[in-house]
Structure formats: C-alpha cells, structure tokens
Amino acid sequence: MHLFFYGVLIGDLASERIAAMLSGIGPGRPAATSGLLYAVPDPTGWYPVLLPGEGAAIPMVRGMVHQSGTVDLAMLDRFEGIDTDNPRAGAYRREPIRITPEVGEPLMADAYLYNHEPAAEFEPIAHGDFARWLRETGRKPLTG
C-alpha cells in the first residue's frame, strides 16, 4: 500500500513527536495529485488540508509518496482526527487517490482528505506546495 503525504507528515516538516509516529514507513519520493490546498492556523503551528479535485483547471498539490511499510495506520488515523464509525464525519478521511510520482507511472495512494468546506481563516496555497509556502511566509509547521 502507498501513502501520499502533503504536509506535516512529510519527514522534513514533521516534529519529533510526529516523526516518531512515522517509524516503519518506507522511503518516500516526490509526487503530486490534483486538488486544492489550504493552510490552517493552529496554536502550535500551521498544517494543510487537501480537497481533492480533477480537471484541467484544478492545480497540482505536491507531496511525497511512501510505501506504508510497518507504520501504524490506526495511530496516524487518530492523529488526523478520523471518525472510524463514520469516516466522513471527522476532520479527515483516508482514501485512495491517483498520484503521479516525479519518476515512474501514476498510481493509487491513500491520502488524508479534508471532509469539510474551507473556513474563512484558511489560507489558499495556489502553488500547492505546503513546504514552499512555509518557507515563503516564514510560518512554522504544526508541532502537534
């Protein structure tokens, strides 16, 4: 199984606590998917939300694709606020989406997709790259 990360689960952005949850994950490689990306403020930093979409007018969201390895998916799901009884009720749901690695053929990978409409305080990230947005704005990623 593949996992697509586009925010604070990316190794370079992950806090020590978040990185500990990722132990056992396979190596990653750059990839992208179509969708809309927003930055969300939190008292401990910023994190992104992804709203998937398709079509020529939908921008690309950049991230990393990994083999899931032995990562504890239940722990990641809890961290992401998934309601296991009703996946569309929590903050996120984990589901497969089509991604395109920089090298290699397109494939399906599970991603954490936001379940709600963007709130007024969310900042759109037009270029679809959360790490780049952090560098450009000088903001810090969620330490959660």
Outline the structure in words.
This protein has 144 residues and is mainly beta. It has a single domain (2-137), classed as Roll (Hypothetical upf0131 protein ytfp). 15% of the residues lie in helices and 38% in strands. It is built from three helices and seven strands; from the N terminus they run βαβββαβββα. Strands 1-4-2-5-6 form a five-stranded mixed beta barrel. The protein is globular and about 35 Å long. The chain starts with a strand and ends in a 7-residue tail after the last helix. The relative contact order is 0.29.
Element layout with pairings:
Elements: E1 2-5, H1 16-21, E2 28-42, E3 45-52, E4 60-67, H2 73-79, E5 92-101, E6 107-114, E7 123-124, H3 130-137
Parallel strand pairs: 1-6
Antiparallel strand pairs: 1-4, 2-3, 2-4, 2-5, 2-7, 5-6
Précis, in short:
This protein has helices at about 15-20, 75-80, 130-135, and strands spanning about 1-5, 30-40, 45-50, 60-65, 90-100, 105-115, 125. It is mainly beta and about 140 residues long.
